[in-house]
Amino acid sequence: MKNPKHWNCVDCGVNTAKGGPTEEFARRKVKRGVAKVWQADKTWEVYEVNPQVWKAARCRSVLCIGCIEQRIGRRLTPADFTDGELNQIVGTKRLSDRKGFRGKREFGFLNPMFG
């Protein structure tokens, strides 16, 4: 998965990953051979869902959990999420609940040079 140009929800405008790497920033770092690990926190709503969920949402960009759920007309469930790296990082309580991470450990780091 590529880093998006920005992390703002395309529907409501909320920044889903304050301080997260943008596509342009990651591209510059890769050219220089520099990789940085980003510290995710509990304000992030960064995730990957299965292709059929994106299709139902009619979007392949950044959406906060509330907006993707509004688009698909239901709450997300753990089965909606991929096994991807993004789904292992810490996020909001709302995101953690949807991923089924209640009380389980999530990682707090994201390497922006994946994929």
TrEMBL record:
<protein>
    <submittedName>
        <fullName>Uncharacterized protein</fullName>
    </submittedName>
</protein>
